[in-house]
Amino acid sequence: MLNTSPPLHSSIVALVSLAAGIAAKHPSMGLCQVQRLRSLGVSEDHIQTAVEIARHIRDEAAQKLDAAFDEQFAGVPVVEAGGACCTPTASGQACC
């Protein structure tokens, strides 16, 4: 299916990229997007709102993962070293 919609405005792309980078804990921290947004005249309030939302989503996801881990951890027997808890990667590399 061919996309016939007009392209997103560059400020929208930069806001989405900034938020996704923050939520994904990307090492660049979205700093180049912040500069781009500023150069496009996006207000600091709008940039801060995107940062706040992204951090909230990131932190909420981490809390839910931690809670799910804790729930599973409570019911999982401890596996001795060398047990079947850790499986190798597709190339045979150990992950633990």
Describe this structure in words.
- Helix content is 57%, strand content 0%.
- It is mainly alpha-helical and 96 residues long.
- The protein starts with 9 loop residues before the first helix and ends in a 21-residue tail after the last helix.
Topology:
Blueprint: H1 10-23, H2 31-39, H3 44-75
Distance between the termini: 44 Å
Overall pLDDT level: 85
Helix and strand element order: HHH
Biggest beta-sheet profile: none
Query: If you compute it from the alpha carbons, what radius of gyration comes out, rounded to the nearest whole angstrom?
Result: 20 Å
Tell me how many strands there are: 0
Label the overall shape. elongated
Low-confidence stretches: none
Structural class: mainly alpha
Percent range for helical residues? Answer: 55-70%
Strand content is under 5%
Task: Give the structure's gist in a few sentences.
This protein has 96 residues and is mainly alpha-helical. Helices cover 57% and strands 0% of the residues.
Task: Label this structure with key terms.
57% helix; mainly alpha; elongated
